[in-house]
Amino acid sequence: MKKQTIRQYILKALAVLLTVALLFEIPCVHVKADENEIGFNYTTKKIYTGKSFKLVLNNAPAKIKWFASADESIATVTKKGEVTGVAPGTVKIKAKCNDVKYTCVVTVIDPYIKVEKNYFKVGTTMTATMKGAKVLSYVSSAPNIVSVDKDGTLTANAKGVANITAYCKNGKNYSVEMHVYEDIKIIENPTFDDLAPTTHMTFEELVGDTGERGYPKAMPTPDTYRITVDLYWKVVMVYARDKEGNYTVPVRYMICSPGASGHNTRQGVFKMKGTRVRFARFKGLTVWAQYWSLIVSATYFHSILYNSGDANDYTTAYNNLGKAVSHGCVRLTVPDARWIYYNCAPGTEVEIRAGSSKDEETKAIREQLKLAPMPSKRTNMKAGEIPWTDNWEIDEVPQDFEYVYVPQ
Question: How confident is the model over 196-216, as a mean pLDDT?
């Protein structure tokens, strides 16, 4: 028998270990690659435009015949392997040695100003850091909204939008747009119209399409509001915290249509989920709705129903607001569904309760929730051009909680 080398013993030992791992589910052991392997010092590399790095073929058995870039508009490479970023994109850099080709995937990005997020609250600060270039100075387009010092410290001074620009040693400048918001707006001594603005809106505003699309960028924190859905009185009530931290401050009242008999809306206390849908058709049905916000399982807050993705195809579901007629979701007017869509973050607590005929307080709210009648002749509404009189704007919504899209 020939004398076995140390390398053969090692390979046999590794084979035994792998077999045992597979049989007994022992966690895998990571083994370093052979140090004698031939290959680039980088198989992937990210660089900034204008920056360079050197590609080296480790353990090259001979002289490299050539280097080449698959796209020199993104990155170039010299005969000695010096790679320079030209413009944003991804490109393969190759080399040939002894008739074998080697590849490094290079991603080029522009220098940029890094901030934790591009929105913050009045009275708070944040640090801006220039990535990929040496900064000489920072300038704010609106110091009264966001001021910036020489070290990149940003201070939010007033609600609004400001551009922060970094002037750099490479002769270029880079900007980031910063949004400043205030805390939630609580109306002092509100009237019923303040708490239920839909009661003075036109039919077009209650069922029309604002024309906006997409999802919230960020929202108030999940503990900002608590929502109560009363199934007996068909009312949704939103409350904010008082000074003691209890949810007693009324914010918004809404008339709703919960589930019909046999499709009863699920009762309990739930934390809202992350799914939001702007304007879509119900799976397996031929009707659509706007501003969906998931409560639990398949139970959503959403608008009245439509026969298509055009708000002009509204249905008589509008006349059923205040009645238990849905398939289990909580139907609302468009402005009310939109308010929840943008203001109530995933994690917001929702209580869906049976309600009681003896609840005089909720009864009084319900009796005042009167909406404009549906016209006898169908209206013609153009998305984005309906009247809008609601008492809030998207840019007023606090941006404490970044919204992460969750598909259905």
Answer: 96
Q: What is the pLDDT of residues 45-96, one digit of tens each?
A: 999 999 999 999 999 889 999 999 999 999 999 999 999 999 999 999 999 9
Strand 57-58 relative to strand 112-114, pairing:
unpaired
What residue type is assigned to position 72 of the chain?
Answer: E
DSSP three-state, residue 48: strand
The pair of three-digit structure tokens given for residue 55, joined into one six-digit string: 């590609």
| Strand stretches in 245-286, DSSP E | 247-255, 268-271, 276-281
How many CB atoms are located within 10 Å of the residue 321 CB?
Answer: 21
DSSP 8-state assignment for residue 323: S
Residue with tokens 């839909």, as numbered in its chain: 198
**Alpha-carbon torsion (400, 404, 407, 408), positive or negative:** negative
C-alpha distance from residue 193 to each of 189, 200, 216, 354, 373 (Å): 12, 7, 26, 26, 17
- Closest by CA to 194, choosing from 239, 253, 242, 236, is 253
pTM > 0.70: yes or no: no
User: In this model, does residue 171 exceed pLDDT 60?
Assistant: yes
Phi, psi of 198 (to 5 degrees): -65, -20
What single string gives the DSSP state of each residue in 91-124? EEEEEEETTEEEEEEEEEE--EEE-S-SEEETT-
Q: What is the pLDDT of residues 362-391, one digit of tens each?
A: 999 999 999 999 999 999 999 999 989 999
Q: How many CB atoms lie within 10 A of CB 52?
A: 14
Residues in contact with 389: Cβ distance below 8 Å, sequence separation at least 6, in sequence order: 197, 200, 201, 205
Two structure tokens written together for 335? 């402005």
